[in-house]
């Protein structure tokens, strides 16, 4: 395996794009979740992290790829009429849930760097409109380090298990601050590290695409967000998601457990992290 940490940023981006193009085409990820290769079912993952069965039943088929590690739409407390931006929107899972919450007078924009994901999401958007009558979603191709969004035009930014994949996380948070309106808020669910990973895991391309090898320390994440100028920052860690994936014998977490020192488990190193903040 090649060391993720020694690769230039554009190579990391290309590896991640290639991995998630495969997810879009195959409908699930053997790198981590969504029921393939013996992993947990996508809906089981979603309900375990707080999504309601009612929300899941109203999604277009194929929107839930089992790639979530939290519920940012709930964290965001979305209101009717708001403009929402989803970073790394995939097949549209959180976009469609948010679209129902902001209603006809609101709008939800999804940005993803993988053409296959954007194509899948746009097809799902047609099905969403046919079933709901809501024409308030849009999907744009772009990188979260360089958002295709104008300055100060967004009320709420959400993101679900995506920022950890970026090779330039400080730039992502600067972009978040740029596109938010004054008073706008951030609700992110992500993976982060409680302590540095063993070298063998950091070298794993599977762990990179599965969000683990690229994750930052919780303390570093906090510093990046504050340096971007965001305020009222809250970071809440939870081991429940990691423990659930391990108990379900998810392929990625099974592989990580194999590479850890004796008498340790994935949740000793990796945590799900719920982040909320505000632009002053």
What is the structure about, briefly put?
By secondary structure, the protein is α/β, with parallel strands linked by helices. β2, α6 and β3 (137-141) form a beta-alpha-beta unit.
Features:
globular, 7-stranded mixed sheet, 12 helices, disordered N terminus, single chain, Rossmann fold, alpha/beta, 280 residues
- What fold name stands as the CATH topology? Rossmann fold
N- and C-termini, Cα separation: 44 Å
Oligomerization state: single chain
Proportion of β residues?
Answer: 15-25%
Count of helical segments?
12
Query: Judging by the overall fold, what is the CATH architecture?
Result: 3-Layer(aba) Sandwich
**CATH superfamily name?**
Vaccinia Virus protein VP39
Rg from alpha-carbon coordinates: 17 Å
Class, according to the CATH hierarchy? Alpha Beta
The secondary-structure class comes to alpha/beta
Count of individual beta strands:
7
Compute the number of structural domains: 1
Arrangement of strands in the largest sheet? 3-2-1-4-5-7-6
| Element pattern in H and E | HHHHEHEHEEHEHHHEHHE
Average pLDDT rating: 88
